Queue: 2 jobs
Job 1
Amino acid sequence: MTEIREYNAERTGSQPSNDWPAYTSTIKRHPQREPVALRQTLTEITGPTFTSGWAGPDLVDLTKQHKGEPLGERMILAGRVLDEDGRPVPNTLVEIWQANAAGRYCHPNDQHAAPLDPNFTGRGQMVTNAKGEYRFLSIIPGAYPWRNTFNAWRAQHVHFSVFGPAFATRIITQMYFPGDPLLEFDPIYNSVPDEAARKRLISRYDPNLSEAEWALGYRFDVVLRGRHATPAGL
Amino acid sequence: MSAKLIPTGTQTAGPYLHIGLTRPEWADLTDAGKAKGDKIVLEGRVIDGDGTPLPDAIVEIWQANAAGKYEHPDDVQDKPLDPHFRGFGRSCTDKDGIYRFTTVKPGAVPGRGNTLQAPHIAVSIAARGLLHHLFTRVYFAGDSLNPSDPVLSSIDDPALQKTLVAESKGKANGAAVWHFDIVLQGKGETVFFDF
Ligand SMILES: [Fe+3]
């Protein structure tokens, strides 16, 4: 008999609902039936591990992927992947992507009339260390317009993909910047119901992480679902 | 339970997910054919509420190897690991909304209690327009273990159950081809799971 030590259910208010018409792309894409509750099995409590390096080398310096330096304000982006109990999540893959300083993505579908930067792709990846830490050097992404509603602008953000220890802990999210006036109007940011949970998506300016004459420092911790202390009764 | 920290909320992967997540090599889970077991192709479309395929979705899969063992420390079953099989795959849909994996048919794995789960593959779907990724499962039509699978058999409506079962489409290059569409909304909407 296999013992199943489950991951916590998602905490009420911490996660957005896909039925969120303020973000118009959800209208034709959200399921209409409630999801079926599934008791976690070996399938859900396991997931890809990254210890053997198969995800490829870390790409932590997004300013050194081309001949020259990208334009924009240099930013050190660092933080930890933790579980709800504050325990670090080591050896897990963090992938990030972002717009350039002008708010343009290096992507064929982004036709926003802002300049591309030949020195910036906006992709990074890193497997967390034993303390669950990650660290990237990048530039601060610009805000960009989108056609959700008339004259809508996305708040400045960096996209994050994080695995964690199990298929159940996988998340894709976005990190925002403190004091951004666009946050109040951004329906994606505001899709997280609970205010404290929403604010968890905002990074923190950290003067101790900034490097003098060189780069601003922002900290962003990603918190994944925690885990029951004991195997579940069957 | 006294969890201290609020979990990070999910956000959409957005329309430019390819910058960060494109990994064409992750669509082949067999290490170029070296993995043990019966080779299969798992493919299908991701479709919205208008029946329009999504050209900007990402499909990820997680499965046991042919012996029914997950490459993960929490799988303590006395079954062999396969050095050529990791069990994780990722495929971004193409302009026609098609995702495709080359993998092996997973073995049966234990369920809760003393149950046995039929061969299945766990799936997660993310895309522009999805604020939270979706979880579903793929089973294989005609598998003798399907009727006793605890998850599949918990779904009473046969029409809903059918949305979790891939259809056999014959063979291509020595691999059995399995077709599995993921319908996000409306007619034929796939059963999604919450766990
Ligand atoms: Fe974006």
Job 2
Amino acid sequence: MSLRIVVTVKYVPDATGDRHFADDLTVDRDDVDGLLSELDEYAVEQALQIADEADDAEITVLTVGPEDAKDALRKALSMGADKAIHVEDDDLHGTDAIGTSLVLAKAIEKAGYDLVISGMASTDGTMGVVPALVAERLGVPQVTLLSEVSVEDGTVKGRRDGDSASEQLEASLPAVVSVTDQSGEARYPSFKGIMAAKKKPVTSWDLSDLDIEAEEVGLEGAYTVVDSATERPARTAGTIVKDEGEGGKQLAEFLAGQKFI
Amino acid sequence: MAEVLVYVDHVDGAVRKPTLELLTLARRIGEPVAVALGAGAADTAAALAEHGATRVLTADAPEFADYLVVPKVDALQAAYESVSPAAVLVPSSAEGKEIAARLAVRIGSGIITDAIDLEAGDEGPVATQSVFAAGFSTKSRVSKGTPVITVKPNSAAVEPAPAAGAVEALSVTFSDKATGTRITSRTPRESTGRPELTEAAIVVSGGRGVNGAENFAIIEALADSLGAAVGASRAAVDAGWYPHSNQVGQTGKSVSPQLYIASGISGAIQHRAGMQTSKTIVAVNKDAEAPIFDLVDYGVVGDLFEVVPQLTEEIKTRKG
Ligand SMILES: Cc1cc2nc3c(=O)[nH]c(=O)nc-3n(C[C@H](O)[C@H](O)[C@H](O)COP(=O)(O)OP(=O)(O)OC[C@H]3O[C@@H](n4cnc5c(N)ncnc54)[C@H](O)[C@@H]3O)c2cc1C
Ligand SMILES: Nc1ncnc2c1ncn2[C@@H]1O[C@H](COP(=O)(O)O)[C@@H](O)[C@H]1O
């Protein structure tokens, strides 16, 4: 039987560009360059490797996001995923993590799945909670923050490097997995992959396709409110000295002045 | 006064510092009630009482150690139901965030992660967060349900505030989902004897400029002269020179010490995301154009192999 893998990927503003907030205090996604969150490339990579090991597997990449989020899906398809689902609806604007997890869970159920693979965190929100939320909603095991993952005979295994210990985890499918950037470099799309991606199917769903009411998501439906966003004042220019042989001693003098020594 | 639930991070009964910081913040909102789970849970009571916990709810069962996250969610939910708190505060570790998130969905509440400050507000607790690699500071609230908020280490000063700290056994019934993800083995991280990276007052980090695992001894010597923790950039970690558990940045640890010393680190946005909120920042880099110099209070343009050992020697001399 075919192993159905759904990879959740997010379209995010480029971290090396100028990121800011829109007037309604949501992340500005219109005026900035976006891309497939780098941390989700690791999820796509692990899906491809797991699919390679399986007799028969199909990888669907799923995103919840604005029109431009199709770029993220294209990138994942050009890396080698088989098909894509784009959940897109004007009422989704401003959805928070709780709402996003609802939409993802409904879409994953509708798509059909044995294994969900997510990134460790989005590079814009950096909450790192959506995979756990999706697992809670789907009612399946969460096997998260893995730096190593494998699937065999309906069981997913992996290594989770925590703060105080490194743990080996194991769960039966279906399950939700998230992988870290320690799981192995993500491949670059080949020219052939990019050409093939153009022909791969991208399905669009809106909220009504998922039986979700507009009030459950979006800025109005959000469970959290941002009251203010202030640009951090640039740090006041510090003292910079060129080492002429006494740099270490000068630095010690500064640290002593600050009472660190 | 309303009660505030505080999830306790401890190792065999030894309470970790971020939990004591949480108790300080919790007292701004209400009376802290602590929840300690797993082996040694009851041993946490003395430290928690000393820092303001009026009650300490404890539970121990093999499930906490043998299965991932969900048993702890079940227990925290049981505590939530018995206390009906005004807010639930959880330390912002990877596991803490996952526990908090799942609890939030179950109780129909919103969640805020990685707060760096917390105050009481007219419409519930107001959390300060540092976002976009610390480029912005936001203030937000949970607008539905009971606020569930995770707080980063080093967000508040630990303040003693003796309270009763009465130990009460928490009764927990595990859901059938609790045993979904089995932990088949656990290898504890070896202690280096140095302070915990996220909790340290001083962090000394090395990057690609350190140029080799053996050269990290220079960084470690500086750290030891200051009683500091050692950090590394991802470039140094990816090169295999230093363990990933010491990585500072977006996909490593986020630190906010009194003093951060970066040597041979360029200061890429993803690195800054994990250290930009440090109080005092110092850098040694041979490239005067390195972006890290935009952040520093004091910077030395020079070769770290000259500057860092000299600094270490000078510190040792001054300390006598
Ligand atoms: C999704 C994502 C997540 C990431 N997460 C992280 C993260 O968590 N943490 C992180 O650090 N990075 C992270 N990165 C990587 C980041 O973009 C940079 O590549 C990395 O921080 C560079 O490390 P570096 O500064 O040590 O190396 P480089 O950028 O190569 O800088 C080395 C510096 O050392 C200086 N130098 C060299 N020799 C000497 C010498 N002898 N004396 C003094 N100075 C010298 C050079 O002038 C240079 O400025 C992430 C990237 C992505 C895409
Ligand atoms: N809008 C989204 N669409 C698809 N996947 C998402 C979305 N938001 C988050 N995810 C997934 O959840 C992971 C963690 O995100 P977060 O909890 O927001 O940091 C990401 O790496 C993605 O795999």
